[in-house]
Amino acid sequence: MAEHLEIFDAFPRWRLINEPISDDPLVGLQRDTALLKEVAAGKRGATARIWENPKSLVVTRRETRFPTFKDAQAQLGSEGWPVLVRESGGTAVPHEAGIVHFSLMFRQDKLFQFTMDAVYEALCEPLQRALSALGLVSGYGEVKGSYCDGKYNLVVDGLKITGTAQRIIGAKKSDDGVQRSAVLAQSMLMVESDPVLGTDVVNRFYELAGSERRFDPLVSTSVQHRMGDAAASLAAGELTQKVRLELANAFEQLTTRDA
């Protein structure tokens, strides 16, 4: 059995939290961290989360050190793009309705019980199945010029449709003397959000913050764009709900199948 599928079998019960879009982007962003801490402390079992966030730009803590970060934060906030700070690495990324986030979190009995590659592949397996159910074939790969690039992007027709990230935190030794850790794997799938506009906002942040970093708005895509006419007749938000449903179904199949 592939190692990434063993992750789903390693825990007798997974819980899926399927949340509506958050009212507050900061609360939505911080929810994963709060859940991860519960998992690390043994207060929560293996958990998956499907979620969306209101319009915001999420940057790394390192990027708050740009020369004019405060100016960029104030300007973009006044334009309806509040700038929030996350703990993980990478680059600035946009959040808004029509971007579906999928997170996995689970506890390990040792620091690297599963390889980072296996964790990324477990994260992406439900996403790939959901995309396949909608007629889209995806694969892994870096996409030169895309923001928050990495080898575990999901790519459709040569364009980035999903970005991924991973974080591991430690916990104090339990009463049995075992030092455990907890893993958080996160993804963001572009469904109805405009990838060109999203990249433009990222680039505007870097310009305002005093950084020379820029990304290519033409190397990313969305489910809506790739489905073309098949998505054209759907009302706003309907495709996003279909993706959420397919994602939840795929995850359910993976966590209830026979080992």
Task: Please give the structural blueprint.
Layout: H1 3-9, E1 15-18, H2 25-40, E2 47-51, E3 56-60, H3 69-78, E4 83-86, E5 93-95, E6 99-108, H4 116-133, E7 139-140, E8 154-156, E9 159-170, E10 181-190, H5 195-209, H6 223-227, H7 229-232, H8 238-256
Parallel strand pairs: 1-2, 3-4
Antiparallel strand pairs: 2-6, 3-5, 6-10, 7-8, 8-9, 9-10
Keywords:
259 residues, alpha+beta, BirA Bifunctional Protein, domain 2, 3-stranded mixed β-sheet, 8 helices
In this structure, how is the largest beta sheet organized? 7 strands, mixed
Which architecture would the CATH scheme give at its second level?
A: 2-Layer Sandwich
Task: Give the amount of beta strand, in percent.
Answer: 15-25%
Give the CATH class: Alpha Beta
Shape: globular
Q: C-alpha Rg, in Å?
A: 18 Å
Termini gap = 9 Å
Count of individual helical segments: 8
Number of domains: 1
Would you mind describing this structure in some detail?
With 259 residues, the chain is of the alpha+beta class. It has a single domain (3-256), classed as Bira Bifunctional Protein, Domain 2 (BirA Bifunctional Protein, domain 2, 2-Layer Sandwich), CATH 3.30.930.10. It is built from 8 helices and 10 strands. The strands form 2 sheets. It has a 7-stranded mixed sheet, sandwiched between helices. A 3-stranded mixed sheet has the order 4-3-5. Helix 1 (3-9) crosses helix 4 (116-133) and helix 4 crosses helix 8 (238-256). It is globular and about 50 Å long. It starts with a helix and ends with a helix. The mean pLDDT is 93.
